[in-house]
Amino acid sequence: MRRVILFIDSFILWLLLTWTLNYQSLLVGAGFSLLVTVIFGKRFSQRPIKWFEPQRYFWLIVLYMPFFAWQCLKANVDVAYRVLHPKMPIEPGIVRVRTVLKSKIGRTVLANSITMTPGTLSVDIRDEYLYIHWIKVYAQDEENATRIIVKKFERFLVRIFE
């Protein structure tokens, strides 16, 4: 079942990327989808059926993506202001934060979301901990750093990936 879902997902992605329905494109897309399925079939999601739950897509597209865009915009303004304003403090450091996400894909998306937000960079993931480089460390302790950096993303990602 896992491989069938991976093949279908890969083929749909191919169709969306090529945006053509001629037989050559369909044949090449099926070939590449089969290749992806053979290579990555065992590593695909532990519960692939969860990707057919429409509420996950609602949380991802309608709620998370606009929220993430807003967080990126705010962080861009903050970093630009710090760069342009000489008295604005830059006190970089690495903090350890905890995540409640259990799935590897959920943790990866969280780490990428943190990295893509200017001013923060995911340095490492170890079990339920992430190590984040922060342009201005507002909290040294794990609990407050987790609340400031991680919790805003986690409330969406838990509903999408867990």
UniProtKB/TrEMBL annotation:
Keywords: Cell membrane, Membrane, Transmembrane, Transmembrane helix. GO terms for molecular function: monoatomic cation transmembrane transporter activity. GO terms for cellular component: plasma membrane. It is a multi-pass membrane protein. The chain crosses the membrane at residues 12-36, 56-73. It comes from the Bacteria. It is found in: Cell membrane. The keyword tRNA-binding does not apply. Belongs to the CPA3 antiporters (TC 2.A.63) subunit E family. This is Na+/H+ antiporter subunit E. It comes from candidate division WOR-3 bacterium JGI_Cruoil_03_44_89.
